[in-house]
Each structure stands twice: as structure tokens, then as C-alpha cells.
Amino acid sequence: MADVTLMTARRPLLPLLLLRMRNRSPGLGESLLGGAVAAGLGLGSLAVLVLGLWISSPYPDSGPGGALHIAAALWLLAHGVELARTDTLSGAPQPMGVTPLLLLALPVWLLYRAAREATDVSAEPDGPPPVPAGTAWTGVVLGYLMVGGAAALYCSGSELRPEWGWVTVCLPLVAASAAAAGVWSAYGCPSDPVLSLLLVLPEPVRRLLSGADARVRLGTAVRAAGAGTTVLFGGGALLLGASLVLHGEAARASFVQLTEGWTGRFAVLLLGAALIPNGAVWSASYALGPGFVLGAGHLVYPFASDPAPLLPPFPLLAAVPDAGAGTPLNWAAGLVPVAAGVTVAWFVARAAVARGGQAEGEGAEPGQPSMRWSAGRTAGVLVLAGLVCAVVFALLAGLSGGPLGVAALAGFGPVWWQSGGAAGLWIVVTGLPVVLVVRAWRMRSRGARGAIPGQGTESAREAAKEAEGETAKDAGQESAKDTRGTSGKAAKGASRKAAKDQAHPEPAVTATEPDEAELYDFLPADDPFASPWPDDLGAGRCAPADRPPLPEPSRPTDPTDGTHPTDTPHPPAEPPVPPDASDSPGTDTV
């Protein structure tokens, strides 16, 4: 019987497992599932595209397994993973590391959406609490990496196999950064995590963000850098399109030369579309000055063009400028970074001096601007925007290039540190004079009309202190004057009363000086929401008609003038202070 008691008193194993699952970190399972689904959607999209091309191809080289291997390899390539191509004429593996930036946008967007949904932030104020940021981020990243590792293992034995060193670096980096952006956006883009990351920056850069308005200046610099990068990217795309039009015949010939069937041409067209963002970044680097590399030791930049002699036929490579020295048409590409610098300067100047309703909200007079930053601080914000733009463009330049083989094909695309440094230098050099001129132009009405500077500046604080000091000084003088006058008037008031009444009889009350009794006419209006219930609250809010009439106030008079008040039976006990008689010479005024 004792054995039966021990067996029945022992807790079963299944409830223990359920209890552990219930006490786990909330949202971790959903986050893991979300990350796995995001990776599966990216893989599935490329698999459908590749299988469709394989089915429509009249002479496929392999079966459906080979098509799925290619889809998995392209998915890894979209994350920046370098691949090795084994089906070469020499038999030696050849690297392929040019990442199509349009393919990179797909996994980044899927990870961003998965991380936002994993936080489960409710729009209702009384909704359930969101999933902790660390839990959501960890779950999405782990779920994504599990599927990514399986895909890398699947295609490791195919003709396009990934390099495991790149897999261990690029895949976690893309997953972690995109998921962090999604979680940060779901929580309302707080600035504290961003400011905490700035501790790793050098001291001169951190000095640009010192002050109480560091968040505002950092936000302005990021927005201005985003606008400048967009102008650079858009200008590069415009240059690429213009070059394709000028080299249209060569581009069409290379397109026809690559393949003969419509399925192959459609595949080449899709590959060219995926590489258009890369071409835009290459063209922007060309406009900045460093240019890009077309083969080891062959540089293309505005002053000279030296492409490799044996380039593979491809429509985008046909748009490369002709070999030789640059012409004024090539030098005109320098207008793109100038436009980017002007754009960044305009954004910074708009934030430095507020106008319109925004300025009035900061304490400025109507129609006057509000100066937030001095000229030096405005220039510092522009320099910070140039640094951010340099970092972003260097990242884009590094992702847009890579090797396509060995020897002459070992280097393609811009050199990331040269392109990023040139972008920051162009922004600072062209933007500094523009931002100072635009700032002065936006402050022109303040200088012309003499408006008070806006809040947040040293001059405004000094003006406010001076105004407060003058007000306190005037108040102290008036108080001292009243005190001295009151002491003298109290002694002379009784002796001068009779003479003053005989010389200056009391004037009649005019319409501009209402009688004291008329002041009682300003009574509260009827309550439109009077309570009909006889409770304490309703009893306290009776209508004005229910109140008893107020007695008529009496005006005190002097008993020596022979007249007596009609509404009071007795004169006042002591004479009041005489009214002001400023027109009588030799008398003090109250």
C-alpha cells in the first residue's frame, strides 16, 4: 500500500512539461516561428522563380533538384555570402561575390516585418503588454538562422556552393540588423538605444552630439544624410540610364549574344533588373571621383576610363564609358554630388531656423523665425550628416561589388572606403557655404524687423534675464514709492479732509466710472446644466433667480457737509481715505 501511495503522490511528467512551457519567456515561440516563416518566404519566392524558368527552358541542364540548389544559392548570395562556382573549364572553383542589391531588399523587408509582428505591440492603450524587445529579436534571428543554415547545408554539394566563412558572418549580420530595425520601429523608434551606441564612436564625433538638444541634432543629421544618399543614388541611376541610351547599340548586341531563346533572354533581363541598383551605386561612385574597378588594375573614373579588355558580354557592362581620357561630358557627372551637398545643407538649415507655425510654437512672435542653433552648431550638424552619409554609401559600395572570378575578374565595383570618404568630403565641402547662406536667408525677417530670438539660444536666454531684471527693478521702485507715500498720507489725511471737500466737491459718477453698486450686476450666468435632483451637489447650484436680493451698498459721506445717507441710519465710525485728486497742486496722490 505504501508503494501505491508513493506512486500516486508523485507528480506526472506531462504536467511538468506543460508548466515549463507556460512559464517560458512570452512570445519566444511565436518569434521563432516568425523568423522561420520569413526565411521560408524568401526561399520560396526564389524557388518559384527559378523553377518557372527551368520549366519554360527548352533545354534544361539539370533536373528540378539542380534548380532548387540554384535557388538556395541565390538566396544566400542575396545576403552577401560569396559563392564558389565549380563547373568551370579549368576545373578550379571560381568565386562569385557580386550581390544583387534588389535581391537583398527581399530578405531585409521580410525580416523587418517579422520582427515588428513578433513584438505584438497593441494599438489600444489598455491592450496586452508587448513582447519584450530582447525576446522578439532573439526569436526572429534564431528562427531565421536555423532555416538559413539548413539552406547552406542543402546547396553545399552543388555547382554553386557557399563559402562557410561568409555564411557565418553575412547571414547572422543581415538577420540581426534587419530584426533590430523592426523591433526598434515597433517600439516607436526610441532614441536611447541609438544614443547608447554612440559611446563606441571617437571623442571628436561624440563632441558633435554634446548638449541638451543632442537628440534633435542627431535626428536632423540622419534625415539630411538619408536625403543626400537618396540624391546620390538617384543621380547614379540617371547617369546609368543616360549611358545605356548613349551605348544602346552595344547593349542590345550583348543582350542578343548571351542567349538565343526567349526563356534565356527573360532570365538575362531579370538578372539585369536585379543588378540595376548596383549599377546606380557604381555610377554614383563614378560621379564622386574614385570611380569603380572593372578588373584587377583597371579603373574607370571621370578623368580616364581603362576597362579590362576581355569583359564578359552583358548589357550593363556595355554602358561603361569608352576607354581613353575623360571629356567635359564625363566631368558633368560631378553635378550629382553637388546636388547631394545642397540637399543636405537645405535640410540642416531648415532645422536650424524654424519659421511659421513651428516658430510660433517655440515662443517666437507671429511672422518671425525662431533660431535654434548658432552658425557653428549648424555647421557641426552638417559635418555629422556628412559622416553618416559617408558610412551609408561606403556600405552600399562594399555590397555592390565583389569578384566574378580570378585574375582579371578578381575585382569589380567601387572601392568602399574611397567611395565613402569621397561622399562625406563632397557633402561637407559643398554643403558648408550653402547651409550658412540658407540659414542667414531664413533669418532675414528677424534681422529686418528686430524680432526677439527664439527659445533655445543663448541670446534669447540673455534677453529674458535682462527683461526679468528690469521688471523686478521697476516693481521694487514702485513698491518703495508706495510705502513712502502711504506713511505721509496717513498723517495728513484727517487734517486735509474738510478743506479738500470744500475746494473740490465730489464729482458725479460718469458712464466711464460706474457706481459701486453697479459692480454687483456682474453675477454668474444661469447654469445650463443645473441638477434637477435635491442632493447636496444640486442644492449648491441654485439659479440666480432663487438667490435673495442683495442690499444696496451705501457710499460713506462726511458728517460735516450737512447731508446724511438715505440708506444707512448712522455715519461711518471713521472717515475713509479720500479719493485721488491728482489735479490739486501740493497734494500727494494715493
UniProtKB/TrEMBL annotation:
Annotated Basic and acidic residues bias: 459-484
One Pfam family from the record: DUF6350
Residues passing through the membrane, by range: 31-55, 67-84, 96-115, 135-154, 166-187, 224-246, 266-288, 331-349, 379-400, 420-441
NAD keyword on record: no
Bias (Pro residues) ranges: 546-556, 568-579
Keywords for this protein: Membrane, Transmembrane, Transmembrane helix
Biased composition (Low complexity): 557-566, 580-590
Region (Disordered): 448-590
Name of this chain's protein: Integral membrane protein
Source organism of this protein record: Streptomyces cellostaticus
